[in-house]
Write a structure and sequence with these properties.
The chain has about 230 residues and is an alpha/beta fold. It is built from 7 helices and 8 strands. Strands 1-2-4-3-5-6-7-8 form an 8-stranded mixed β-sheet, with helices on both faces. It is globular and about 40 Å long. About 45% of the residues are buried.
Length: about 230
């Protein structure tokens, strides 16, 4: 049993050349490696996101989207997870957020990482502004005060849409669902094709740019509506 566990957890989908390039700092974003993972420091001093990677995916695979997000106005703390599985450290966000001072904090992630970020948010709503789930759903009901943003691609062949429907909260003032036309499951990151996924009809840059547009727009709307 132990050997099977080590075999399963010992492999992961690796970041590709596009992801590795996005780990370099530029004039808009300073990228630094930290003890918890990576920090994408853009122009914002107001809001930040703790991002949990998908299951069995190298965390740096999400660098392109997170670099763009930081450049657009939301700094990002990218968490490295034990065995590349977020459910082994669901509370990692508390440790990370304690190292910085931002007026508004969001947690989120991709696939299993998004679900585990929502799991964390279910027990820590008082310290958060919202949850950002890319190709994921919330396993538990979330506080109505939180922005609950669910983004997924129309060609996603991995995401359990029945679970998305069960978790859907149309009556909640904070619930927002956005479908990226032509997007699939894997293209929120840059780690290659994923088993059972649908074929994307758009490129990864277009999918990630649309995701960033929606995240920034909805988080700005949330901050504008929040009492000062």
């Amino acid at each position: 049993m132990a050997a099977a566990f080590l075999i399963y957890t010992g492999s992961c989908a690796h970041a590709d050349v596009h992801a590795r390039a996005a780990l370099k700092s530029d004039q808009d974003v300073e990228v630094t490696q930290t003890e918890y993972g990576w920090f994408f420091d853009g122009p914002s001093d107001e809001k930040a996101l703790v991002f949990y990677p998908g299951a069995k995916v190298e965390e740096t695979a999400y660098a392109p989207m997170l670099h763009l997000l930081a450049a657009r106005g939301m700094d990002v703390c990218l968490a490295r997870m034990p065995f590349h599985l977020a459910f082994f450290d669901i509370n990692r966000a508390s440790v990370i957020m304690g190292q910085y001072r931002y007026p508004a904090w969001y947690v989120g992630g991709h696939s299993l990482g998004g679900a585990m970020a929502a799991e964390y948010a279910a027990g820590h709503a008082d310290g958060l502004s919202g949850v950002i789930m890319c190709a994921a759903y919330a396993p538990k009901p979330l506080d109505d005060r939180l922005l609950t943003l669910c983004i997924y691609g129309s060609e996603d062949g991995v995401l359990n849409m029945e679970k998305v429907a069960e978790a859907r909260e149309p009556s909640s003032p904070g619930y927002v669902e956005h479908i990226i036309d032509g997007g699939n499951h894997a293209q929120f990151g840059c780690y290659g094709l994923q088993k059972r996924d649908g074929t994307a009809k758009i490129g990864f840059k277009e999918q990630q740019a649309e995701a960033v547009d929606v995240i920034i727009s909805e988080c700005d709307r949330k901050e504008d509506a929040s009492p000062r």
